Amino acid sequence: MKILLRLVLVFALTPVVYAQRVNLDFPGLADKAREVVDVTLDGALLRLGSRFLSDTDADERAVRDMVDRLEGIYVRSYEFGSDGYDRSAIDAVRKQLGPTWKRVVSVKSKTRDDVEIYTDLRGDKIVGLVVIAAEPRELTLVNLVGPIDLDKLATLEGQFGIPRVSKKGDRQ
Amino acid sequence: MNLEHELRAALRRKSPAPGLAERVLARAHEVPERRPVRRAPWAVAASLLLAVTLAGWGAHRRAEGERAREQVLLAMRIAGSKVAYAQQQVRGISK
Amino acid sequence: MYAILEARDAGVDTLQRARQGDHEAFAEIVGSHESMVYGLAYHFFQDRGRGEEIAQDVFLQLYRSLDSIESPSHLLFWLRQVTSRRCIDAVRRAKIARPVPLEAVELQSVIKDADPFLERKLRQLVADLPEAQRLVITLRYQEDLDPAEICRIVEMPINTVKSHLHRALTALRKKLGDH
Predict the structure, then answer these.
(1) A150–B83: do the CB atoms touch at under 8 Å?
(2) How confident is the model at residue C2 (pLDDT cuts 50, 70, 90)?
(3) Which end of chain B is more exposed for a tag (fewer CB within 10 A), N or C?
(4) Are residues C141 and C178 in the same domain?
(5) What domain count does chain C have?
(6) Region B51-65 average pLDDT
(7) Chain C residues within an 8 Å CB radius of B20
(8) Are residues C87 and C149 in the same domain?
């Protein structure tokens, strides 16, 4: 009886978290693009991919630590010709983000991507991430579903043999 | 960065869509391209079953797993680089 | 040595059969060289459709010119030259507008090595080069040809080829911030 009571209390007090998958597929983008990167990994396929990450490679272990807690990874990246693309897709992504979503970063650049990062916050935990990176001839949309540590995600820039950048812009 | 190395990688040979020779020969003789032979559905199903059995489920699973692993790494690298770039801009990192 | 001779004989034999109207032999020749021909055209225009169009035209021309092909090595030279000529002709006919200014794809030097799209950006930068530089760079780095081989294909003096290569690499390095 006591065990049952404890179980009821645990379920009652644990916030129910529904992670949201965002639709990243819009008509006219893939058809117009010269090159497309399309990644959809969730459920069994995500678990399978995670199992095949190397145990002996420190970088892949770090990726697996992040990925094991995710429910889904969705990436669409398009490269276009000189005609560019219809930017209404960006608004269409933003419109799907409900009241629990917050824009945490917005970068505007004349020479590189405009980048927006949105997180789905439940309490103090991030349970979803959307990244929109837009250049005149490239559009990248990322949706990660599940608990995410943004700082750890950013360190993946320093993985795979890629130099890290310190705050002063010096290579390490 | 070794520019010549990167150029070799960026400009490596690229395959066209399959069937280029057929398309060329079709133009040469102005005949319609050969249509794929349509098999009865049951024959297709039987062939697939046989192929999977012969190839071995294990080998298939390994290949699928490797592809999924590559996709995981690609996706996380893309996500990580965009987040890192945004963070660097916010923290005022200059060129 | 025996294996090399055998492969060379196979190439000669395939060519001979293709000349005699053997479609399978012709398809073998296309299969052996399609990634080279299509690759040159694709990288020149950064466009799959143009690449396919030019590749088809080149192989169609080959089909009609098989009698003039003397050997497998001549075939390779012929394909590279005809593809190069067709790329340049297509640009001049269509008067293709210059693509987006390079500033739009300028790389941030501190993380250029971290950019997963470096290859893609490089292809864009190459596609933005003037046509002669673009062709020479593509022949050099896709086909690994030296200036002497390139000048025979594009029918330019060797110093002109070297000059195009030098200018193209300088322009690419400048845009990549690598000085």
Answers:
(1) yes
(2) very low
(3) C
(4) yes
(5) 2
(6) 70
(7) 30, 34, 38, 52, 55-56, 59
(8) no
Mean pLDDT of the residues in chain B: 76
Minimal C-alpha gap between A147 and chain C (Å): 24
> In this structure, is residue A1 part of a structural domain?
no
Same structural domain, C91 and C110: no
User: Complex ipTM, two decimals?
Assistant: 0.79
Q: How many CB pairs under 8 A join A and C?
A: 44
Which is nearest to B21 in space by CA: A102, C26, C108? C26
Mean pLDDT, range B41-67, rounded to an integer = 70
Say if A7 falls within a structural domain: no
* Closest to A150 measured CA to CA, from C151, C125, B76: B76
Contact of C23 with chain B, judged by CB distance below 8 Å, is answered with yes
What is the predicted pLDDT for the residue at B23?
92
Residue C23: is its pLDDT beyond 50? yes
Closest residue in chain A to residue C123, using alpha carbons only: A79
**Cα A93 from Cα A114, distance rounded (Å):** 15
* Cα nearest neighbour of C106 on chain A: A111
Mean pLDDT check: name the lowest of A25-34, A48-57, A103-112, C61-70: A103-112
Instruction: Spell out the residues 6+ positions from residue C27 whose beta carbon is closer than 8 angstroms to its own.
Output: B21, B22, B25
Instruction: Tell me the average pLDDT across C128-144.
Output: 94
| Domain housing C105 | 101-179
Can you read off the two tokens belonging to residue A33?
């693009």
Residue C10 is part of a domain; what is its CATH number?
Answer: 1.10.1740.10
**pLDDT at residue A79 tops 50:** yes
Q: Which amino acid is it at B30?
A: E
Same domain, C19 and C81: yes
Higher pLDDT, residue C147 or A160: C147
CB of A53 within 8 Å of any CB in chain B?
A: yes
Whether C111 sits inside 8 A of A157 (CB atoms) is: yes
My answer on whether C10 and C76 are in the same domain is yes
> What is residue A169's predicted lDDT score, i.e. its pLDDT?
33
Residues 76-115 of chain A whose Cβ lies under 8 A from any Cβ of chain B = 77, 105, 107, 109, 112-113, 115
CATH number at residue C121: 1.10.10.10
Helical segments of chain C, H only: 2-19, 23-45, 48-65, 72-94, 118-127, 131-142, 147-154, 158-176
Overall domain count for chain A: 1
Q: Does the distance separating the beta carbons of C115 and B81 come in below 8 Å? A: yes
User: Given a contact as 3+ CB pairs under 8 Å, which chains touch A?
Assistant: B, C
Give the residue from chain A lying closest to B75, CA to CA. A75
Alpha-carbon gap, residue C122 to C106, rounded angstroms: 10
CB pairs under 8 A between A and B: 119
Q: Answer yes or no: are the C-beta atoms of C111 and A157 closer than 8 Å.
A: yes
Helix (H, G, I), strand (E, B) or coil at A145: strand
